[in-house]
Amino acid sequence: MQRWKARDEDIARLRFDVKTDLTPLLTSYNTKQLFLYLTAEYTDEATHEAHEVVLWDRIIMRGQVNDFRAVGVPNGAPRTTRPRIRIDDAKSVYTWRNPGGSFQDVHEANVTLHYSLMPYVGMLSSGVAATARDLVEIPDVKRR
Question: How many degrees, rounded to 5, is the angle at CA 56 between CA 51 and CA 60?
Answer without folding.
Answer: 130
